[in-house]
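Predict the structure of phosphoglycolate phosphatase.
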Amino acid sequence: MTKDLVGTALIFDLDGTLVDTAEDLAASMNHALGDMGFDAVAPNEVRHLVGHGARRMLMRGFEISANRDASESELDEALERFLKYYQENIADHSRPFEYVIEMIEGFRARGAVCAICTNKREGMAVQLMTTLNLDHLFETIVGADTTVAAKPDPAPVSLCLKRTGAKKAVFIGDSDTDIKAAMATGLPCAIADFGYGPLELAGEATAVFANYREAASVIENLLLA
Ligand SMILES: O=C(O)COP(=O)(O)O
Ligand SMILES: [Mg+2]
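Done. Here is the predicted structure for phosphoglycolate phosphatase.
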Protein backbone atom coordinates (compact mmCIF):
# COMPACT_ATOMS: atom_id res chain seq x y z
CA MET A 1 0.00 0.00 0.00
CA THR A 2 1.49 3.37 -0.95
CA LYS A 3 1.77 5.82 1.91
CA ASP A 4 0.28 8.62 -0.16
CA LEU A 5 -1.64 10.18 2.75
CA VAL A 6 1.26 10.86 5.14
CA GLY A 7 0.78 14.32 6.67
CA THR A 8 -3.02 14.16 6.47
CA ALA A 9 -5.62 13.71 9.22
CA LEU A 10 -9.26 12.74 9.60
CA ILE A 11 -10.81 14.50 12.59
CA PHE A 12 -14.04 12.84 13.73
CA ASP A 13 -16.89 14.00 15.87
CA LEU A 14 -17.93 11.12 18.15
CA ASP A 15 -21.65 10.87 19.00
CA GLY A 16 -23.78 10.36 15.89
CA THR A 17 -20.74 10.37 13.57
CA LEU A 18 -18.33 7.64 14.64
CA VAL A 19 -20.40 5.75 17.21
CA ASP A 20 -24.18 5.38 17.51
CA THR A 21 -24.45 6.25 21.21
CA ALA A 22 -28.06 7.47 21.42
CA GLU A 23 -29.52 4.38 23.07
CA ASP A 24 -27.06 4.36 25.99
CA LEU A 25 -27.33 8.13 26.38
CA ALA A 26 -31.15 7.89 26.44
CA ALA A 27 -31.12 5.02 28.94
CA SER A 28 -28.76 6.95 31.22
CA MET A 29 -30.77 10.16 30.97
CA ASN A 30 -34.02 8.30 31.64
CA HIS A 31 -32.42 6.53 34.59
CA ALA A 32 -31.54 9.94 36.10
CA LEU A 33 -34.98 11.41 35.35
CA GLY A 34 -36.74 8.31 36.73
CA ASP A 35 -34.73 8.41 39.97
CA MET A 36 -35.84 12.00 40.40
CA GLY A 37 -39.52 11.14 39.82
CA PHE A 38 -39.85 12.37 36.22
CA ASP A 39 -41.16 10.62 33.11
CA ALA A 40 -38.83 9.08 30.54
CA VAL A 41 -38.14 10.82 27.23
CA ALA A 42 -38.56 8.71 24.06
CA PRO A 43 -35.10 7.53 22.86
CA ASN A 44 -35.85 8.86 19.39
CA GLU A 45 -36.23 12.35 20.84
CA VAL A 46 -33.01 12.05 22.83
CA ARG A 47 -30.96 11.64 19.60
CA HIS A 48 -31.65 15.25 18.75
CA LEU A 49 -30.57 16.51 22.18
CA VAL A 50 -27.00 15.21 21.78
CA GLY A 51 -24.10 17.36 20.63
CA HIS A 52 -23.71 20.09 23.25
CA GLY A 53 -22.59 17.98 26.18
CA ALA A 54 -24.45 16.05 28.86
CA ARG A 55 -25.63 19.06 30.90
CA ARG A 56 -27.37 20.65 27.93
CA MET A 57 -28.90 17.28 26.94
CA LEU A 58 -30.30 16.84 30.46
CA MET A 59 -31.60 20.41 30.51
CA ARG A 60 -33.57 19.79 27.30
CA GLY A 61 -34.67 16.34 28.49
CA PHE A 62 -35.98 17.90 31.66
CA GLU A 63 -38.00 20.47 29.68
CA ILE A 64 -39.62 17.70 27.63
CA SER A 65 -40.27 15.44 30.61
CA ALA A 66 -41.40 17.95 33.24
CA ASN A 67 -42.69 20.65 30.90
CA ARG A 68 -40.70 23.27 32.79
CA ASP A 69 -37.11 24.41 33.20
CA ALA A 70 -34.89 22.50 35.61
CA SER A 71 -33.36 24.44 38.49
CA GLU A 72 -29.55 24.52 38.74
CA SER A 73 -29.62 22.13 41.68
CA GLU A 74 -31.95 19.71 39.84
CA LEU A 75 -29.55 19.80 36.89
CA ASP A 76 -26.57 19.17 39.17
CA GLU A 77 -28.35 16.17 40.65
CA ALA A 78 -29.46 14.85 37.25
CA LEU A 79 -25.92 15.20 35.88
CA GLU A 80 -24.42 13.33 38.80
CA ARG A 81 -26.95 10.49 38.46
CA PHE A 82 -26.54 10.45 34.66
CA LEU A 83 -22.73 10.28 34.78
CA LYS A 84 -22.67 7.49 37.34
CA TYR A 85 -25.06 5.32 35.32
CA TYR A 86 -23.47 6.20 31.97
CA GLN A 87 -19.97 5.31 33.19
CA GLU A 88 -21.24 1.88 34.19
CA ASN A 89 -23.21 1.28 30.96
CA ILE A 90 -21.28 3.34 28.42
CA ALA A 91 -21.17 0.73 25.66
CA ASP A 92 -24.10 -1.58 26.41
CA HIS A 93 -25.59 -0.76 23.01
CA SER A 94 -23.18 1.80 21.49
CA ARG A 95 -21.47 0.57 18.32
CA PRO A 96 -19.49 2.24 15.54
CA PHE A 97 -21.51 3.05 12.41
CA GLU A 98 -21.30 0.53 9.59
CA TYR A 99 -18.00 0.43 7.65
CA VAL A 100 -16.44 3.39 9.51
CA ILE A 101 -13.75 1.24 11.18
CA GLU A 102 -12.83 -0.47 7.89
CA MET A 103 -12.61 2.99 6.29
CA ILE A 104 -10.35 4.26 9.08
CA GLU A 105 -8.08 1.22 8.79
CA GLY A 106 -7.79 1.83 5.06
CA PHE A 107 -6.80 5.47 5.52
CA ARG A 108 -4.35 4.60 8.29
CA ALA A 109 -2.68 2.02 6.05
CA ARG A 110 -2.04 4.85 3.58
CA GLY A 111 -0.39 7.00 6.28
CA ALA A 112 -3.28 9.22 7.41
CA VAL A 113 -3.84 9.72 11.14
CA CYS A 114 -7.20 9.98 12.93
CA ALA A 115 -8.37 12.08 15.86
CA ILE A 116 -11.60 12.55 17.81
CA CYS A 117 -13.01 15.99 18.56
CA THR A 118 -16.18 15.65 20.65
CA ASN A 119 -18.36 17.65 22.99
CA LYS A 120 -18.38 14.68 25.35
CA ARG A 121 -16.07 15.12 28.31
CA GLU A 122 -12.61 13.84 27.41
CA GLY A 123 -12.73 11.15 30.12
CA MET A 124 -16.05 9.78 28.85
CA ALA A 125 -14.86 9.76 25.24
CA VAL A 126 -11.66 7.92 26.20
CA GLN A 127 -13.67 5.42 28.29
CA LEU A 128 -16.09 4.77 25.42
CA MET A 129 -13.35 4.22 22.85
CA THR A 130 -11.32 2.03 25.23
CA THR A 131 -14.39 -0.08 26.09
CA LEU A 132 -15.06 -0.58 22.36
CA ASN A 133 -11.36 -1.46 21.84
CA LEU A 134 -11.02 1.29 19.28
CA ASP A 135 -8.77 3.76 21.12
CA HIS A 136 -5.62 2.51 19.33
CA LEU A 137 -6.93 3.90 16.03
CA PHE A 138 -6.82 7.51 17.25
CA GLU A 139 -3.77 9.69 17.74
CA THR A 140 -5.67 11.93 20.18
CA ILE A 141 -9.10 12.35 21.76
CA VAL A 142 -10.11 15.93 22.51
CA GLY A 143 -13.26 16.57 24.56
CA ALA A 144 -15.43 19.53 25.58
CA ASP A 145 -13.27 20.06 28.67
CA THR A 146 -9.86 19.62 27.01
CA THR A 147 -9.45 23.19 25.75
CA VAL A 148 -10.78 26.60 26.82
CA ALA A 149 -14.02 26.16 24.87
CA ALA A 150 -16.09 23.40 23.26
CA LYS A 151 -17.20 23.15 19.59
CA PRO A 152 -18.40 25.28 17.74
CA ASP A 153 -15.31 27.11 19.04
CA PRO A 154 -12.30 26.27 16.81
CA ALA A 155 -10.00 25.63 19.83
CA PRO A 156 -10.59 21.86 20.15
CA VAL A 157 -10.28 21.35 16.37
CA SER A 158 -7.03 23.35 16.31
CA LEU A 159 -5.66 21.20 19.14
CA CYS A 160 -6.45 18.04 17.15
CA LEU A 161 -4.60 19.50 14.17
CA LYS A 162 -1.62 20.41 16.33
CA ARG A 163 -1.48 17.00 18.00
CA THR A 164 -1.70 15.11 14.70
CA GLY A 165 0.86 17.39 13.07
CA ALA A 166 -1.20 17.21 9.88
CA LYS A 167 -0.70 19.62 6.99
CA LYS A 168 -4.06 18.76 5.53
CA ALA A 169 -7.20 17.54 7.30
CA VAL A 170 -10.90 16.90 6.92
CA PHE A 171 -13.47 17.24 9.70
CA ILE A 172 -16.19 14.57 9.75
CA GLY A 173 -19.29 15.39 11.79
CA ASP A 174 -23.07 15.19 12.07
CA SER A 175 -24.32 18.61 13.20
CA ASP A 176 -24.33 22.37 12.69
CA THR A 177 -21.93 22.58 15.64
CA ASP A 178 -19.41 20.52 13.67
CA ILE A 179 -19.90 22.56 10.48
CA LYS A 180 -19.31 25.81 12.42
CA ALA A 181 -16.24 24.43 14.23
CA ALA A 182 -14.69 23.14 10.99
CA MET A 183 -15.38 26.39 9.15
CA ALA A 184 -13.94 28.44 12.02
CA THR A 185 -10.75 26.35 11.78
CA GLY A 186 -10.62 26.62 7.98
CA LEU A 187 -11.12 22.89 7.41
CA PRO A 188 -13.36 21.22 4.85
CA CYS A 189 -16.12 19.20 6.49
CA ALA A 190 -17.94 16.05 5.40
CA ILE A 191 -21.26 15.55 7.17
CA ALA A 192 -23.10 12.30 7.97
CA ASP A 193 -26.79 12.77 7.22
CA PHE A 194 -27.69 9.75 9.40
CA GLY A 195 -26.37 11.34 12.62
CA TYR A 196 -28.12 13.37 15.30
CA GLY A 197 -28.09 16.84 13.72
CA PRO A 198 -29.49 19.46 13.71
CA LEU A 199 -28.39 20.14 10.14
CA GLU A 200 -29.77 23.51 9.18
CA LEU A 201 -26.35 24.51 7.85
CA ALA A 202 -25.88 21.40 5.68
CA GLY A 203 -25.66 23.69 2.63
CA GLU A 204 -22.44 25.19 4.07
CA ALA A 205 -20.76 21.79 4.51
CA THR A 206 -18.17 20.74 1.93
CA ALA A 207 -19.98 17.43 1.42
CA VAL A 208 -22.84 15.41 2.89
CA PHE A 209 -22.74 11.62 2.84
CA ALA A 210 -25.28 8.85 3.52
CA ASN A 211 -22.92 6.00 4.52
CA TYR A 212 -19.19 5.42 5.03
CA ARG A 213 -18.61 3.69 1.68
CA GLU A 214 -19.71 6.92 0.05
CA ALA A 215 -17.76 8.97 2.61
CA ALA A 216 -14.49 7.17 1.85
CA SER A 217 -14.19 8.54 -1.68
CA VAL A 218 -15.41 12.01 -0.63
CA ILE A 219 -12.76 12.18 2.13
CA GLU A 220 -10.02 10.75 -0.10
CA ASN A 221 -10.71 13.45 -2.72
CA LEU A 222 -10.59 16.19 -0.07
CA LEU A 223 -7.30 14.91 1.38
CA LEU A 224 -5.66 14.56 -2.04
CA ALA A 225 -6.99 17.89 -3.41
O1 LIG B 1 -23.17 16.10 23.31
C1 LIG B 1 -22.28 15.29 23.54
O2 LIG B 1 -22.18 14.70 24.65
C2 LIG B 1 -21.20 14.99 22.52
O3 LIG B 1 -21.59 15.09 21.19
P1 LIG B 1 -20.55 15.02 19.96
O4 LIG B 1 -19.64 13.82 20.15
O5 LIG B 1 -21.48 14.86 18.81
O6 LIG B 1 -19.77 16.32 19.96
MG1 LIG C 1 -22.22 14.52 16.95
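The chain has two domains: 8-20+94-224, 22-88.
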